[in-house]
Amino acid sequence: MRSLVRNFAGLIAFLLLWELVVRLGVIAEEDVPPASVVLTRIAELFGQEAFLRDVIASVLAWLIALGIAIVIAIPLGLVLGNFPLVRMATRSIVEFLRPIPSVALIPLVLVVIGGGPEAKITLAVYAAVWPILYNTIYAFDEIDPLLIDTARSCGVHKSGILTTVALPHAAPFVFTGIRISASVGLIVIVSTEFIAGANVGLGSFILKAAHGAGRTDLVLAGTVVAGVIGYLANEGLERLGGKLFKWHKATTAEVA
């Protein structure tokens, strides 16, 4: 509760500072509308069906992409973390693909897949896989060998060690990777909608408001809504992780 109050107080202070800077003329109102104007536009937008469809389209694509990334990254991380030979054999491929920005692949994805929802989902999956994958691999690297030796001395087979020692140890790290990937995936979804000119989505709404009507207030309103979605997702996952893994310090550490 204290954390929530502090976050809310910081947000109020930021909004008041924003309002004050614009009202005093430090920044022209034509360039950056006051916070009160932007908040009013947000309230109005949530009464419009078209904007709600944009929000739902982005959130749905984001959830699908995050789910696919989890299904891909966790098993792959288990394999690479448990089998050093496989990890070494694939290291060059992984290190080649990982630094490539998702937005740099937009032209290729548009040519291969097309400009529908599949394009932004594919790019978001590509971006979201890496934090989960590396956190999973890192978790297995950090397992105390004494735990494994103790399990073996008690007659636990390799499959039992995986389920009773390795996976419980890795779970908090994997969850942290999922939390990081959730933020990354949302960024890529909205960015792809904006850059690729999607038909629906928050990025599409921001693009139309910027280039069509030239409405800075609507641009900022759409941006703030995207930011709030990302904040709520991260806050929710962080609190869930705190409850599930309160016994493990990895819940408060972001391992990228």
From TrEMBL:
Record bears the keyword Metal-binding: no
Domain spans labelled ABC transmembrane type-1: 55-237
Keyword Membrane: yes
UniProt-listed PROSITE patterns: ABC_TM1 (PS50928)
Chain ranges passing through the membrane: 59-84, 96-115, 121-140, 161-180, 186-206, 218-234
GO cellular component assignments: plasma membrane
Gene3D superfamilies, sorted: MetI-like
Localization per Swiss-Prot or TrEMBL: Cell membrane
Membrane topology: Multi-pass membrane protein
Gene Ontology BP, a term: transmembrane transport
Similarity comment text for this entry: Belongs to the binding-protein-dependent transport system permease family.
Protein name as annotated: Nitrate ABC transporter permease
